């Protein structure tokens, strides 16, 4: 999956000592930001209330599931899928439509749907080396067009309320949070304990070696994006249930939020390093900062901007660190 | 035709051939539908290519340098917003502010990418998110109207039958970049940096400067594109959505730029952008619903990126030889049975 990072990583122009200084400064910056957040949290009224902490946990449910898929993709060296958010929304539409066959069949059908959509993309990326970013950008356009063909673009509404149990709360937290934990656990297990998981890390670490060693690149690619498709489909199921209907608007900023969580979780951009549970930590960090900004009355724009800057800083820190350990 | 031949074809005259085919399809519209075509349709397709065409030029430039600047769409949004907010009295000031912001953003991103040797995709992705956030901060998350309607009207005035000042600015930008790439050292160095960076550095190319310059150019061009669009529609939107990116990437790839870097020309990218906008105009004339255009553009991008894929060729050769050996085995089996 070499086509991922356009522009091969290469020797940096800056000298090693300069990089160390930059790394120190940035790490100092991150520590300082952490301090600011802590002080902000202590001085912000209502931050440490049980309700607010619950709200933070609840808010990572949907993005957490999509981010699981994103993490597996990044570990495999394909960097990102630009289509996972759209896939979640399309899965939600599909799920709500399929509810007329009953809840259990609808869930099964939606998961199969996500698996198929994901693995087709993954096969093209793994077997042919198609550029994952551009391919998935194209998939967004195609999926959006197809949704309009099949549902004329309107909001799909469920035929009855049989699915409502998906919106139950347990111990004050929504079902989607527990489902997300389940997705994280299963993905972590697959990545750590199965041959497939180890192969994914291998392909990400050195795609050329994996290719030469005769690993089935097409199958691994299909598996990686298939897994991401399933995770997005589960997110779609919960999204459709939560919104009591579904349209393409559900996509929102899901794709970018998932990428941000994956990067902030310390996944190596070029692949081979990272883990699903660390991404969950990344998602929680972002959710905490967003919540804090919200409580302090900052606009949505500021929240988005901080997220973007956080991504850039973490990407640089992780990059410099990985280079430090290699040389 | 084998994939290698198709690839060579795509890289060479193909962009112009494709444009010729689309032009032919456009001219033949009266023969396969009940609709007529007019000069105005040609004018219109140039108009729609004006903003997204510049975006294609920006992304294409980053791809020639072997990088991929995702922040262009963010700069497109920010440029449009700055132009509207700061250009209320003087539209030129608005454009200057947008392009000035482009210089700053490009220098920061290019500096990080060149000096630290990080892949451009994650950096510009963070940049994209941050720029959209900044745009939303400036606009309080709302679309902002541009009261100075005259600017848009004069920018979009039909001149020389097919053109408008806006599309002429777009073409001017392409000509400028084409001249720089074709006739100066910058162009050669740019391709060298995109093709084989280590070799380029060993050969004495100042790769850092080229990279930083490229990212400044992509941001400035994107900002200009956004500013022109805002003036034209007298509104700046905080989030342009995904469609401009799909158009720009497809146009660049159709224009003969490759994702591996080192290849591509400004003329090719222009041909790619014009092919797409003319294709969209045909859809408008024959009144196909919007989603068809979405599907065709997305499908086209999938096809182009598949041909760009490095392992497609070896795959097909492997498949062919496997099929051949299977056939031989069958023949051998048959002969054995006959005996």
Which tags fit this structure?
heterodimer, A: 327 residues, mainly alpha, 13 helices, 72% helix, globular, disordered N terminus, B: 339 residues, ABC transporter involved in vitamin B12 uptake, BtuC, 2 domains, two-stranded antiparallel ribbon, 16 helices, 2 strands
For the record, the CATH class of the largest domain in chain B is Mainly Alpha
> From the alpha-carbon coordinates, what is the Rg of chain A to the nearest angstrom?
20 Å
Distance between the termini of chain A: 24 Å
Strand content of chain A: under 5%
Range of helix content of chain A: over 70%
Shape of chain B from CA axes?
globular
CATH architecture of the largest domain in chain B: Orthogonal Bundle
Q: What share of the residues of chain B lie within helices? A: over 70%
Structural class determined from secondary elements of chain B: mainly alpha
How many domains is the backbone of chain B divided into? 2
Q: What are the secondary-structure elements of chain B, in order, as H or E?
A: HHHHHHHEHHHHHEHHHH
The side-by-side strand order for the widest beta sheet of chain A comes to 1-2
**What oligomeric state do these chains adopt?**
heterodimer
Count helical runs of chain B. Answer: 16
Q: N- to C-terminal separation of chain B?
A: 39 Å
Mean pLDDT of chain B: 89
What this model shows, in words?
The complex is a heterodimer of chains A (327) and B (339). Chain A contains 13 helices and two strands, in the order H-H-H-H-H-H-E-E-H-H-H-H-H-H-H. The longest helix of chain A has 28 residues, at 16-43. A two-stranded antiparallel sheet of chain A has the order 1-2. In chain A, helix 1 (16-43) runs antiparallel to helix 13 and helix 4 runs antiparallel to helix 5. The radius of gyration of chain A is 20 Å and the shape is globular. Chain A is mainly alpha-helical. In chain A, 72% of the residues lie in helices and 1% in strands. The model of chain B has no long low-confidence stretch (mean pLDDT 89). With 339 residues, chain B is mainly alpha-helical. A two-stranded antiparallel ribbon of chain B has the order 1-2. The interface between A and B is large, with 63 and 69 residues.
